[in-house]
Design brief:
The structure is a single chain. The chain is an alpha/beta fold. It has a single domain, classed as P-loop containing nucleotide triphosphate hydrolases (Rossmann fold). The protein has eleven helices and seven strands. It is globular. It comes from Pseudomonas fluvialis. This is Chromosome partitioning protein.
């Protein structure tokens, strides 16, 4: 299973969802890998506690290899970092990804990540991909490489408008590049059940036939505490309500196997 968590609108909790689902997957006994494709490296920091020059080159080195030429060029290898959590590994991101992007686009390296994931799938039960909040080279590469896409949504009117365009873009990408890609659904994040507007937006999306999943992730300060501790919720406070919601969401997604 190769799942990409993506929304081109920032601030919807994309990295938090990717990391916490990967952490639940690992806690459930699956050998799990998260690949961070965002130059901001939020997922990398969350799962490793590393920052700046302490972060291994990771996925940027893999993409540099794809640009290399000559008989002695190293091809298709990637360094994998072992997190402090059992069964959970990460391919780290660095700011260098931003510098590499135009070169990769120029050289048409859009399918290289898919080949890498096909090899990594031999060693991992579950692979998660965290993407930048933009439909750029790295995101398109991830959508081509994945077999599932999960879309975070934060019950905001701007998010709603962006959602329609995003669903259309994914459908076009499926037709052109990856017909096996499955939209698993829209997961509502930072949900406030006592507020009228979020529930109204949610009801309208469901009425329109959009694939809204039946598990909502609550808004909680515990998530910020989790970020600060560099410890996913299932390891920080497994009994917390939000931790249990991630467990429920993971079980729902696994039931679609």
């Amino acid at each position: 299973m190769r799942r990409v968590v993506f929304n081109q609108k920032g601030g919807v909790g994309k990295s938090s969802i990717a990391c916490n689902l990967a952490a639940v997957s690992a806690a459930e006994g699956y050998r799990t890998l998260l690949i961070d494709l965002d130059a901001q490296a939020n997922s990398t920091h969350y799962l490793t506690g590393l920052t700046g020059d302490d972060i291994p080159v990771g996925i940027a080195d893999f993409f540099k290899q794809t640009l290399a030429s000559g008989p002695f060029a190293k091809k298709g290898k990637v360094d994998i970092y072992e997190t402090p959590f059992d069964n959970l590994h990460v391919v780290t991101a660095t700011a260098e990804l931003a510098e590499l992007q135009p070169k990769l686009e120029q050289k048409h390296k859009i399918n290289k990540l898919r080949k890498l994931l096909e090899e990594l799938a031999e060693d991992y039960d579950r692979i998660y991909l965290d993407t930048p909040p933009a439909l750029n080279f790295y995101t398109v590469s991830a959508l081509i490489a994945a077999d599932r896409v999960l879309i975070p949504f934060d019950c905001d009117s701007f998010s709603r408008q962006a959602l329609y365009g995003l669903m259309q873009e994914i459908e076009e990408l499926k037709e052109d590049h990856n017909e096996d890609l499955e939209v698993e659904g829209i997961v509502v994040n930072q949900f406030q059940p006592r507020a009228a507007l979020p529930q109204q937006l949610l009801d309208e999306l469901i009425a329109e036939g959009l694939p809204v999943l039946p598990v909502n992730l609550m808004s909680s300060v515990k998530m910020r505490e989790s970020h600060q501790a560099c410890k996913p919720l299932i390891f920080l406070d497994p009994r917390h309500k939000l931790s249990q919601q991630f467990l429920e969401l993971h079980q729902l997604l696994e039931s679609g196997e």
